[in-house]
Design a protein that fits this description.
disordered N terminus; homodimer; PyrdxlP-dep_Trfase_major (chains A, B); pyridoxal phosphate (chains A, B); globular; 18 helices; seven-stranded mixed beta sheet; five-stranded mixed beta sheet; 3 domains; PyrdxlP-dep_Trfase (chains A, B); Aspartate Aminotransferase, domain 2; alpha/beta; 11% strand; Aspartate Aminotransferase, domain 1
Chain lengths: 583, 583
Amino acid sequence: MATSEPRATGADQDPNTANLRPPSGTYEYAWMHGCTRKLGMKICGFLQKNNSLEERGRLAGQKNLLSCDNSDSESRFRRTEIDFSNLFARDLLPAKNGEDPTIQFLLEIVDILTNYIKKTFDRSTKVLDFHHPHQLLEGMEGFNLELSDQPESLEQILVDCRDTLKYGVRTGHPRFFNQLSSGLDIIGLAGEWLTSTANTNMFTYEIAPVFVLMEQLTLKKMRELIGWPGGEGDGLFSPGGAISNMYSVMIARYKYFPEVKTKGMSAAPRLVLFTSEHSHYSIKKAGAALGFGTDNVILLSTDERGRVIPADLEAKIIDAKQKGYVPLFVNATAGSTVYGAFDPINEIADICEKYNLWLHVDGAWGGGLLMSRKHRHKLSGVERANSVTWNPHKMMGVPLQCSAILVREKGILAGCNSMCAGYLFQPDKQYDVTYDTGDKAIQCGRHVDIFKFWLMWKAKGTVGFEQHIDKCLDLSQYLYNKIKNREGFQMVFNGVPQHTNVCFWYIPRSLRGMPDSDERLEKLHRVAPKIKAMMMESGTTMVGYQPQGNKVNFFRMVVSNPAVTQSDIDFLIGEIERLGNDL
Amino acid sequence: MATSEPRATGADQDPNTANLRPPSGTYEYAWMHGCTRKLGMKICGFLQKNNSLEERGRLAGQKNLLSCDNSDSESRFRRTEIDFSNLFARDLLPAKNGEDPTIQFLLEIVDILTNYIKKTFDRSTKVLDFHHPHQLLEGMEGFNLELSDQPESLEQILVDCRDTLKYGVRTGHPRFFNQLSSGLDIIGLAGEWLTSTANTNMFTYEIAPVFVLMEQLTLKKMRELIGWPGGEGDGLFSPGGAISNMYSVMIARYKYFPEVKTKGMSAAPRLVLFTSEHSHYSIKKAGAALGFGTDNVILLSTDERGRVIPADLEAKIIDAKQKGYVPLFVNATAGSTVYGAFDPINEIADICEKYNLWLHVDGAWGGGLLMSRKHRHKLSGVERANSVTWNPHKMMGVPLQCSAILVREKGILAGCNSMCAGYLFQPDKQYDVTYDTGDKAIQCGRHVDIFKFWLMWKAKGTVGFEQHIDKCLDLSQYLYNKIKNREGFQMVFNGVPQHTNVCFWYIPRSLRGMPDSDERLEKLHRVAPKIKAMMMESGTTMVGYQPQGNKVNFFRMVVSNPAVTQSDIDFLIGEIERLGNDL
């Protein structure tokens, strides 16, 4: 491979062992003397190019005889001007002489990204620049989404990258409140950049030794926070909370009816699952996918705050048994999607123990509160669960995707899912193959979701996550206090929110005096969508809305972004009033 | 937000619309005059810091009255020396004055990554630096994987990043042949860096407008390559081929027995699935997970090349029907995991039509060959499939994860999976909500896997993928030709490989004269693991091995990395001989 860079002298001098940084000043010096150094390196590069030594240098540890620079085994990048209009993907590594264009191309990308990052945190930037699908498909100012047979120049690729960001949504913006996942954590981002550069797969220790161990240690810490003795148990990172919840149903079934794995659902009686009417739809999806049927996912009634009423659970268990069905599984939600409600886990656990049912806690949204000494009591009883879903990509600000399924009983994940594929999980490897995780998963290839989270935990400590969570909950309480008695605002339920969810209607002036009637409800139902549409058109902020049960469309405000301040909450209130007052 | 950078004058001047680059020379100029510019910006930053205007600048389009630099709305990054030993995650954005440390920290990360990338393509670098789990857990040279309550400094975080790469496996190295996914595509990598910076979610157009459209257009192109008329149909990117295959089984069931969605598997007769004994284990995993049971996944016999024997399929269908079971689904593998075999799709499709069965083609590994005019005939008949799995992250070199499930019938994915969650998929949004994809998926949040692939397709064109595929297959044929008659090598099956898989035993000198016997087989079974262990210890190369059926451990060589040359193939042969000769 040709190069224009100084080189390490051999593979045994791994560059990663080099000092973290050159002596202070070296870098500036390199810049000042860029021209002469470059000339030297060109000569050096020419010599290397014309020598196929590295092609012949077969054995690890063998030194390259040719080395231009022994002292600088890890060089700091240098930025140069390159004309990308005549360069193509084929000119980058592994192409001969591809090293310099590769580095310069990546630095251009980094330039685009760092500018985007700066703007994301800048409140004078819009949250989004909204366009309808047909507008984007027609091509905005030359942004052509169509793919073609022939390659585009790297200059065009850079333009495409800018355009992609330009027409996207800044989910890290301090005024983006639209989803449970928001924010742009810089450490997490660095972790993702590294993860994609390492480009490996979690299924075996063999090709992901460090990541596999990080996953193991991190899952253990999470289990300790749940409260399982010694952090014992099992778990995996999965591609999102819905899949984590699906795992929980699968392993519950395997625990009580292991023959279903080989014989199918016909080997079991009619099994029923229980979950809150406020719970995430993934429990129903799992019921449909795994062959239970959505009719056998029984929805539990909730109190006015959206929390499961334990007596209703018990009544429905008894009812199911009387019908000859077999209750199998109860999902308790720790932080419901809309209300942010925490089901009373201890009372539900009592019932699960009484009737010998699997208890799963869906803490996809609320699991993060386990890291806060102030708020973890809301999950009291979680240590009695058989399995827990917990998505660090929601409340803890980890970049998407990062979701864990945690299981109290060791070995059951593998028992449920293993197929012992010989080509991956050879028993005769030279290392302890119990570290291979692939056969526990329903996936084969599995993306490395752990590193960004591990790195954030290292960088913030548990206390950093705690501070983040406490701050977000404080902000929600601030919002609640500001609007609970404010003219034009009406809370969907009373009392301080349990999580960061604040649910409210905005009542435009025209509806304020109006008596309760179907007409008023119909009109109110249309208010939130109208305000939301105007918000998106103006690009100033984004917040979600939805109906729930018999309640017409209302706003659901959530805070999970550390960039949010009280001023952003004030801004949201003002914006809703500005846009909605005269509807 | 405080800043030390020049600013755009307002949100309506989106920085992304700025020219791609400043006039030639500007950048160098900025460097030369860094000191005076910096001073100016410090003053400017001070003024901005002490003015909360952006906090009050509420409406989009409103200009910032204070602006330090009107001409340079998108600034190029500048690298400065920062002492990270006293900085922590909390000092980065969104912290006050966090912008400069943020950019400098990310540039340090980029420095680590670009050095890693350069070394990855450098054959004098080891593929891996192997350590056993207990060694890494004990802490290598201070690399501590344990998490703690208190934060680490950013300097330590940078060291951790270096160590993570140091002890990992270079899957992009030209001598890494261990998995179907290998290589480090620079465009794909840039795409991943951008994706993680955008940090959004595919479930709605609302928060991923550009990515949703890219997915739609790319899936259409893929369906065109499959040969479905007009590229019509449906599809999704899913977290890997196993999940894509699971989708295919789910939608087949929904097509023939839609009542299973609500009533469960008890509403259907005993359904059976058919797949090759050489097929990927994910079909069996899907059978277990979805409630069919692995006993109802019937394995089909193959010829000596690992291709399904159509007559065996028909015989087993008839047998199942005679037993009163209901054949539902046939999986034809296009590129099997170990042999790289392509099942005869047309003959299988004939049988599926005759018996009215769902035909799925698992092209996770072989789907990429559809882009090659020379090799696409191997998937002849794929246009008759009802669904196709195709993983661009394998043969096409797209970074992990990137897998598509493609479906011929429009609407069936949504029919199968929709639960109509009101909080996400509001029908009263201001845009055409048919663009919201979330309710088609079994996931809720869905990672953006499309962008890197779309960007690679833009940058290479269809012809670029074609060249890549043709080159990899040529290299495999080169290997096959080199070893088919070479002393010490024995092919597992005869004939030119259909895909890049080349399967062979290496026979150490001590076994060469030995007559066929159980003893010889036992000894031969231990050869590949021993050579592999030595390879990993020396770090020079990696290649997979496994047993298959009654065949003892053999090597499976695959090529999907564009960095591989004939010299690397020669190297592998030589390395196996060097390590194995005297076993």
